[in-house]
Amino acid sequence: MEKQRQWVDEAWRKITEKINRTSKKIGANFPHASVHGSYELAEPHWWTAGFWPGQLWLVYRDTKDESLKTIAEQCEEKLDKVITDYYRLDHDMGFMWTLTSIARYKLLGKEDSKRRALLVANLLMGRFNVNGHFIRAWNPWFEDDDNRGYAIIDCAMNLPLLFWATEETEDPRFKAVAMKHADTILEHFIEADGSVHHIVHFDPETGERIEFVGGQGYAPNSAWSRGTAWAIYGLTLAYEHTGQDRYLQAAKKVAHFFISNLPEDFVPHWDFRIPEEVTPYRDSSAGAIAAPGLLLLAEKVPPTEAPIYKKAGENILHSLYEHYGDWENPNEDGLILEGTSHYPEQKYLKNPLIYGDYFFVEGVARLKGYTELFW
């Protein structure tokens, strides 16, 4: 325990020091992937917009550094135009406003953040397909693109926005929609062995399942590791907010698959089922996402089961810190190296990714004792 305390405190110190440095460079913008040491900036409407301000709030909670608070608030304000002026706002509203508006509301009690988050929760609820019991993922990306019936596993992490909205307003509709989508995950996304599909294509009119789509995984029936991580954490959060045992059992099944497929250093490859001739890039972001999910799962299961998940989460975070972290290099903005964003499109295959950084920071903060969730 003393040894863990030592590396956790050391990691937290290095996290705060580096974020203090990079915040002066990045400012109130929206980094996505680090290329040649510098974070490329995305538009405010991109799905990753919440992760940089989310990191700032995680550090601010500990240090009360007003400069970090100011930047995080400026990021949140920039997202207002995404609500009013952007036509392709999609299911990733949960990622974006949970880590900006809900984080600020929980930490500071600011009513304008509460109003933003409740507005967006209504918009997210409006994407629910009542016949298929799923939240539609995207709007068309290009002319004649028909993705009306697409749902993706990532949305498991958008559901906490809806759970929070019911808890805040006592209106049960938000929670009901979130649970319907979570039940669709159990029925259609998770296989008997605990592996997870990235995209499920439903008929948008009847709600019937048409096919699995590979998406960011190697193939429709492979096992994209980041999708597996989204499922672990998202289903554990569904249990956290509802107390429904079926979500806990599903989270455990997916966690067992994830843990059993980890390599020796506990940081997963980008897909758990790839042919030998395919480059087995690591995806540090998948490990970073799974780790706080596993730590939360350890708190929800009986004490005799908890060490399985707790130790796995700790091992992942420790390995990311020791073997994948970049702490002293002034020429690298990212915290965690070796992320794989989108192998099928050959995008960002060995890069720090802002969501990998965020979840790593969240996991280490949890080991430090900060257990209140923005989610």
Brief characterization of the structure:
By secondary structure, the protein is mainly alpha-helical. The protein is built from 13 helices and 7 strands.
Structure description:
- The chain starts with a helix and ends in a 7-residue tail after the last helix.
- It has a single domain, classed as Glycosyltransferase.
- Helix content is 54%, strand content 7%.
- It has a three-stranded antiparallel sheet with strand order 5-6-7, with no helix packed on it. Strands 1-2 form a two-stranded antiparallel sheet. Strands 3-4 form a two-stranded antiparallel ribbon.
- A hairpin with a 6-residue loop joins β6 and β7.
- The mean pLDDT is 97.
Topology:
Blueprint: H1 2-26, E1 31-35, E2 38-41, H2 51-63, H3 66-78, H4 80-85, H5 93-108, H6 111-125, E3 128-129, E4 134-135, E5 150-152, H7 159-169, H8 172-189, E6 199-202, E7 209-213, H9 225-242, H10 245-260, H11 284-300, H12 306-324, H13 354-368
Antiparallel strand pairs: 1-2, 3-4, 5-6, 6-7
Helix pairs in contact: 1-2, 1-13, 2-3, 2-5, 2-13, 3-5, 5-6, 5-7, 7-8, 7-9, 9-10, 9-11, 10-11, 11-12, 11-13, 12-13
Question: If classified by CATH, what would the architecture be?
Answer: Alpha/alpha barrel
Strands, total number: 7
How many angstroms separate the termini? Answer: 27 Å
* Uncertain runs: none
Strand order of the largest sheet: 5-6-7
Q: Briefly, what CATH class?
A: Mainly Alpha
Q: What structural category do the secondary elements indicate?
A: mainly alpha
Categorize the overall geometry: globular
